[in-house]
Structures are given as structure tokens and as C-alpha cells.
Amino acid sequence: MAYPLVEGNIGKYCILNGQIVDFDSIEGQQLFVPTEEITYYESVRFQEGVLLFWEDHMDRLSKSVAAKENFPIDPDTYQFFAESMIFESGMADGNVRVVLTKSLYLIYFSNMTYPTEEMYKEGIVTRSLTWERVEPHVKVFRGDYKKAVAEAQTTSTSFGMPYEVILRGNDGKFVEGGRSNFFVLKGNTVYSPSEDLILIGITRKYVKDAIAEAGLSLSEGAFTMEELVRMETQEDDGPPDMGLFVTSSPFDILPVSSIDDQAFPSAKCPKLQDLMAAYQKIVHAYIDSHK
Q: Which of 91, 149, 210, 226 is deepest in the core (most CB within 10 A)?
């Protein structure tokens, strides 16, 4: 399914093959016309003017391209223009999107909805979607997938409108979020599906470091709704020993308070709170070392 090169843009211009292009220009308007070219992309969050985990994003972008068409990419050039845009804008926090096809590269500020403070404290509402992704390791625009996720995200649950969609395979086991990785914390173990089933998120890499820092262990595992409910109801009195959460560049670590019409008290899990604090230490250390 054809998809445009630009979506959810903010600002008046982009960088197209090294040139400033106004979105209102004829050339700029063409970027909103769906294209049949394979389109690769990375959305990179910046905080305090620092592109977070830039090297990891570019490594994943390179691997996505190599898996499909294997043309050369130029991360140093993309970084130069991205940082120049950030400096000129005066923005401290936001999101930059890098888009590639075999014939062009494109850099622009993209609109990103970041979680509210209440979401971190209370958790988020989510809805499930049965969908097995094709080539999950390759990050390209797929119109059918984006349409299915968007439709699921506009369907209310008994807890309200979902902030994220959780994908499950045909076996009913939850594997990842529509724009995030999905984890289950139980006891001292954090479970994640096999990496060959998911798009390996950049945040995921540093969450794994935070898991070790918080004194927890990571194990492979995926669960159905019935299994999650059974795990949650087996808990003793006291603070929750189980927490579901999603991770991504915009989210960091975000507790899940419900899936469909089933509630989970994830945000009240002390070990999940410790994990979130450990991850923030890693983020701030990165920012300090790259200013």
C-alpha cells in the first residue's frame, strides 16, 4: 500500500537531499503524495537539545535498508542537518524523523504525543489487536498495518480510549505494542517475547541495562490474556508483584493499567517503579555525556 513520505509534520520546512524545502512549495507538497517506493524511517527523540541514542537509531536504519535494498546511507550528514534544525528552532525537546528511500533522504520535525505525568503515575489504557507483522525487524512504512493500528486506537474500552495498541499473534500471546515493545514484570523477572517476533526498539536496549541495574533478570516469554489474569490473581496481599509496561523513545517506560476490559495495577508495582527510575538515570547520563 502506497504511503506518503511526510506525516504528522510540524514546522514550515524540511531538509530534502541536503536542501531546505518549504512544505508549502510545489516540491514540498509532493512529499505528502503516497509513493510506492520502499520507505525506511527512524523517529528520534531529543531532550535538552540532544538526539537520544542517535547511534542506535542509525544502526537500526542501516540494518533495515540492508535487509531490503542495501543502498549506502550517511548518518553523519543526517545528524548534521538534524542538529542544525534543532539549534535553529530553539527547541529543547521534541522529535526528528529521518526518512529514506533509494532516491532521497528527508529530515523534519514530527509531531509526537508524549505521555502525561498522570500516565506514568497511573498507567495507560490499551487495546489488543491480533496482527502478525511481516519482517518485524525491518522498519518501513506499511500502510495496511498503520491503518489497522489507527482503527484499533480509536475504539474505546470500558476504561476509555486506548493510548497504545498491544499486538498479539494468532496464538493469542501478546508480543509488542503498535509503536512500542511490551514487557511483563513478575517477581524479580521481566519477560519479553523472542526477539525474532518483534521490532527491536532502541529504548529496549537501555531498558535491558536498567533491568540489571534494578536487580532484576530478563527472560524470554509471552503470555495470553488468560495467563496474565491468572498470574495477577495469584498475588498475595500487599503491593503488586506484577506490572505490565511498554517502552519506546517517546514513552521511555510506561506502565499499562488495562488491556481491553481487563485492569492491571501495574503502576503500583514497586519493582516497576524502581526499574523506571533506573532507566531515567541511564537517559540523563547519555544527555550529560552528549551535550
A: 210
Cβ(125)–Cβ(161) under 8 Å? yes
Express each pLDDT in 178-220 by its tens digit: 999 999 999 999 999 988 888 888 999 999 999 999 999 999 9
Sorted by sequence, the CB contacts under 8 Å of residue 196 that are 6+ apart come out as 136, 137
Task: Please count the other Cβ atoms lying within 10 Å of the Cβ belonging to residue 277.
Answer: 13
Please give the Cα distance from 232 to 123 (Å, whole number): 16
Instruction: Go through 37-55 and write b for each residue having 16 or more CB atoms within 10 A of its CB, e for each that does not.
Output: eebbbbbbbbeebbbbbbe
What are residue 51's DSSP bridge partners? 46
What is the identity of the amino acid at 26?
I
Confirm if 1 and 91 have CB atoms less than 8 A apart.
no
The total number of structural domains that make up the chain = 2
> What one-letter code names the amino acid at 290?
H
Residues 105 and 248 in one domain: no
Residues 166, 230 contacting (CB under 8 angstroms): no
The answer on 179 and 121 residing in a single domain is: yes
